[in-house]
Specification:
Blueprint lengths: L1 E5 L7 E5 L2 H4 L5 H14 L11 E4 L7 H5 L3 E7 H4 L29 H10 L3 E2 L4 E6 L5 H10 L1
Length: 154
């Protein structure tokens, strides 16, 4: 769904601005929306480490001379939704987040709310249905570590 807003320009042309994903769901209750907002606020205070995401390297495509044919420089980072998504039993009324706290990303901890994982699966262009994961790759640079960092930054 797209919202039309008149831009305050001399030509007064309308431009399309997409609504946020959370506004697209008519089945979401007000309390569910508040819980999502609390989780996002806590997640913004959280530092992700690279050991939480499997990184795979493969050969890049396209121009690049012999470097492309010999080295695995393309980096692909995956977020495995099945391993990180909390079940309904794990989610409480506050969605596991207290005011001013951060999201617990300890090893083996399921930290992603089910509603957020559902939004990613339904709307993310990076979602891979066969592995139920979000996969982001980079082959912008000529070295594997630089591409891995670029994929993580994305």
């Amino acid at each position: 769904m797209i919202v039309r807003i008149l831009a305050a320009t001399a030509s007064s042309t309308a431009r399309a601005i997409p609504r946020s994903i959370s506004c697209l769901h008519s089945d979401a209750s007000l309390e569910s929306m508040r819980a999502r907002r609390r989780w996002i606020a806590a997640f913004e205070q959280t530092t992700l480490t690279t050991d939480q995401f499997p990184i795979a390297f493969s050969r890049s495509s396209g121009p690049g001379g012999q470097n492309v044919n010999k080295l695995n420089t393309k980096a692909t980072v995956r977020l495995e939704l099945a391993r990180t998504t909390r079940s309904d039993d794990d989610e409480d009324a506050n969605d596991g987040v207290q005011s001013g706290s951060s999201v617990d990303l300890s090893p083996g901890k399921r930290w992603l709310p089910k509603a957020v994982a559902g939004d990613l699966a339904a709307h993310s262009p990076y979602y891979v249905q066969s592995s139920h994961s979000v996969s982001i790759s980079s082959m912008r640079h000529r070295t594997a570590p630089a591409n891995a960092q670029d994929a993580l930054d994305k």
